[in-house]
């Protein structure tokens, strides 16, 4: 495993430790080479012999040239297609200041609120925006896409209306929403009816109804009668709506809806060939504890200052497991931030003007079509989308427009839909009407007014939406927020199980190129050869890396990858008549989302115990297999384990489950310790998901975007996710068990960020991927070795080695002197570090994953900080300082607190702010002190409060 010859290669930029530093680290852990370390750490019976079947590595320049070539083979048609994906303009200041700014895209999920106040404020703005638009008091910090958000709404209704078993779906919903929503509902054993709601509600035993507002053909009907009727029957109403339309239309909350949801894509988020886009959901106050995903709340810090945090569901998938409200672990935070900033930048007047612009063009287009003999407009009331009837010529008109650079939607041989977006012009109107055989109505001719139902007051009245309309204001606001946070552009983020490593700029830069970013997901194949070839090549490479037969990149999060894999297993058994196989075995140490995903796949969870060394208890597994026998559908295991160990029993575990007739799901969250070294598809796995936002360098973006490709063995290929807009799929009927079901609104999910993962694999090459894995394992063992005397490593494998992460056990320290893992996490902020993973998978511990991207100096800086904190702990243990008076109990310290006139602590200001000398050269100060977590849950506020709200937190 040699360093590449070219010093300009990508790998030399990606790996933190150079050859000399690697040798120093190897010596400290007792090995003379990376090969020797891997041979000692990874069980011999799973190690890959030979190199991965991948092309030779490209330089950054060569990779970008290839990406340019792919982008050039996409024809960017002006998008008038609609169907949930709309033309929008990303303001350059937001594109460059959020989407392309490392301070935003390299940030982690804001579990540590003190160093996340900037991104939490931005997400609170998003929640406030959604709440004001929808007229409902509680909004979340975003979901994945509109189709899966509908599935989440159905699940929410089924949890709260326990007597019902049937859900009604408005036939006017977008086709992809109907398919995904119906199949997800059927997966949890709900009955689904797709109905014409104009005829009212028929039937009993109803959970609720999902209403389109507007419909997929643009038509607007009053949902209030249906809402009132479902309420009279004990059910709930969810309204799927367009945020731009809500600038004009009455809000769902005003109409009595329980839930409002949709996509915020058209608020400045590029089309991205289908994603990533931030869906939204808002609910009534009584449903706030059932809201899926993340909720940002307002609390106070130790000095009573207003501060933000994740509220209620902070890590509920890990805590509640199969009882969680959803398996979504994070969200689409980066895209939610983009949408919220778009709303701030334009403000209510600007957004209303954009809405009126789209509506005006749609109205004039409809008037022009009405002048064509034999043609007609299908619906009298619409917002921005016009469905027209052109007898026998719809496809010909669409084809003619495509050749002239325009994309419209064909409904059938007679019908077209044209959806007007923000960038549409008079010239566009003329071209669209000309293709239909009409002209733009003369200005002297009165165009019939489309009488929209109108909301009485313009939404978005909060000051945040009325104060940032110049580029200078927005530029500075984004800087202020980013300066409050710790992201990967500032320091190492040593989070176990999360792989916060370098995100290659060569790939990131490409996602904003128009040839990738401006392509509508339903563009015909002949115009998207570049996208489709890049996706196919990425899927082939991932299959080669994992040792599986085939891969689908459709799942738009790791949680969705888990669900897709379990649905494939479930449908495989059902297709064989094994309908009794409904148990999923899950080790105690598994990721929390595993159990939640199993429940969503309608599998019962049975827990397998953990052995003394942290591995799967094989004897308990045998007992569970004996007890449940033919009911076992699968086991979900994470490899290396969540305890950070290469378990040497993995082949035995796989064989035991296979012998019992079950399937083996290997969670790929920790694949950064396997890439190029071992292949789950070859050592016993039937299915895995990968986290491209971990191992394959797509940024975390403050909690999203993510992609969770699902990888399967040959016998499960038929059950991979299907295309949600496949015309052969009829949502009225269940998809036969012999086929897979879609788990996202487009065939390729969040394709927009795939160039990042593609570029990482292309630039690293087979040997580079293996070397990156080896250096990640080396870094973890180096940290474990250096810190073991200060903070014992809880679990290790053969030869005393860990995998790519290690768990530091603070429980003996807590028992001795009360100092907790939380105290250490907060004190690390004063040293300029994001905390490791706190109390997962073992309460009272810290899990550290240094990754391969951190150089020796940064690793040593972290080690030095931890040892310094250990010395501070020892002073408490020795009785020199009382715990309540200690630095650790009071940490972290803001700049304001350090320079305050009063200083009532026994330690000095210098000890608080500058515990090591190097901090005097560069110092990060958090914007708030330690948060009062309980206050935030007792006093739930999840939209932007007025400035005076926290003047007296004691009142």
Automatic annotation (TrEMBL):
It holds the Pfam family GDC-P. The keyword Nucleotide-binding does not apply. It is an enzyme of class 1 (oxidoreductase). The modification N6-(pyridoxal phosphate)lysine is found at residue 694. Signal peptide: none annotated. SUPFAM superfamilies: PLP-dependent transferases. Gene3D superfamilies: Aspartate Aminotransferase, domain 1 (3.90.1150.10), Type I PLP-dependent aspartate aminotransferase-like (Major domain) (3.40.640.10). PANTHER family: GLYCINE DEHYDROGENASE (DECARBOXYLATING), MITOCHONDRIAL (PTHR11773:SF1), GLYCINE DEHYDROGENASE, DECARBOXYLATING (PTHR11773). Keywords: Oxidoreductase, Pyridoxal phosphate. Residues 13-433, 469-722 form the Glycine cleavage system P-protein N-terminal domain. GO terms for molecular function: glycine binding; glycine dehydrogenase (decarboxylating) activity; pyridoxal phosphate binding. The glycine cleavage system is composed of four proteins: P, T, L and H. It catalyses: N(6)-[(R)-lipoyl]-L-lysyl-[glycine-cleavage complex H protein] + glycine + H(+) = N(6)-[(R)-S(8)-aminomethyldihydrolipoyl]-L-lysyl-[glycine-cleavage complex H protein] + CO2. Belongs to the GcvP family. InterPro entries: GcvP, GDC-P_C, GDC-P_N, GDC_P, PyrdxlP-dep_Trfase, PyrdxlP-dep_Trfase_major, PyrdxlP-dep_Trfase_small. Coiled coil: none annotated. This is glycine dehydrogenase (aminomethyl-transferring). Its cofactor is pyridoxal 5'-phosphate. One of its GO terms (cellular component) is glycine cleavage complex. Its EC number is 1.4.4.2. The keyword Oxidoreductase applies. The glycine cleavage system catalyzes the degradation of glycine. The P protein binds the alpha-amino group of glycine through its pyridoxal phosphate cofactor; CO(2) is released and the remaining methylamine moiety is then transferred to the lipoamide cofactor of the H protein. One of its GO terms (biological process) is glycine decarboxylation via glycine cleavage system. Residues 772-893 form the Glycine dehydrogenase C-terminal domain.
